[in-house]
Every structure is written in structure tokens, then in C-alpha cells.
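hey can u check if this looks right to u? its 222 residues, i copy pasted from the old doc so theres a chance i mangled smth
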Amino acid sequence: MAELSLAIPKRWQPASVWLLYVVGLVPAAWTFYLGATDQLGADPVKTFELLLGIWTIRFLILTLAVSPARELFGWNYLRYRRALGLLTFYYALMHFTVYMVLDQAMDISAVINDVLKRPFIMFGMAGLAMLIPLALTSNNLSIRRLGKNWIWLHRLVYIIAACGALHFALSTKILDLEQYIYVGLIIALILYRSYRPIARNRQKGKGRTRNRAVASVRETAG
């Protein structure tokens, strides 16, 4: 299958990554503006918190989709995966900050009571906690120093995705269509990641069987 690309000249590719950061942060800036100008409805804090959470899920899905899109369709957007992952972290951090500062006013006892009353919050906090080491090591220096350990560390993203899906799905009593779509996509991406090593092992097994068959035919012919 032909590879689809943005067809951006190489000299402009670094600028396109920075443009992604700018465009990616526009929803947060715009929502903050709406809140500051009293245009977020009767409960602006909750609305702001919710929208930041939704954008966290969206960027998480895009991050997870980069490798499958390349492997299945030949769409090579690997250069943007780091930016998408960091945008996921930024939105998760903003979502948590709004919850802690604006919603709970840094009242730890109120947060604990809220967690006991709504356990799904723990999944969100766990996901954010695991995102922190991924964000801190999302640089070339960490990749060189950690080596293979970097790969193992960044596989946490699938556990983070599961926590995010649970947090998002359990945040309301009734799931709407958007939640079904996002949770379904996350589950599909996690299942694909789980199946990929199995598929590779099968391919290797078929390759070994084919090689043995060829060698056997050669020996017989000899």
C-alpha cells in the first residue's frame, strides 16, 4: 500500500512539529478564554475540567494510533508521536490542576472524600502518575541513556490508556455516543498492541517452517 505523508519538505518538518504543539494547545486556550469571559455556562469549572479531559483522551488516541496507522496503512506520522504524547500529558495535567485548584480548592480532605465517593478518580490519578515518567523521558538524551529500558518504560502508555478509558467511561452514569466511540477506539488499539507480538511470532514460525521445507527439498534433491 502506498505510503501517505504530509508531503512537507524536510527543512519544514521541525517547524510542522512545533506547529502541532501550537495548534494542539488552542482548545485549552480557547476554553480558558470562554471561561474567563463567562461563556461556559452555569458551572464553568466543571465544563472546563470536562473539556480538558476530553482533549486528553483525543490526544491519547492519536498517540496510540500512530504505529498501527503506519503498519496497517503506511501512514508515516512517527515524527509527530512525541508531540502528541506530550500534548496528552499537558492536557491531563491541566485537567488535574483544574480539579485540584478550581474544583476542590486544594482541600486534600475534600479530594479524599471525593475519591471515596467516586472511585473512578483514582484511575485518572494513576494514569497521570504514570504519564509523568513518560513525559520526562520523551527526549533523545533519555532514549540514548535508557536504551531498551526506554522501550519497556514507554509501554506503560497502554496501561495509561486503560486507566484513561475507565476514568472516562465511569465519570458518568450513562455513556453517550462520544464516550462509546472513544472507549471503543482505546480498547481496539490496546487489543491491536496485544495481538501484534502474536502475529509477529506466527510470521516467524511460518518463516522457519518454510526454510526447513526448502532445506529438506534441497537435501532430497542433492
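Residues 1-6 have pLDDT under 50 and may be disordered.
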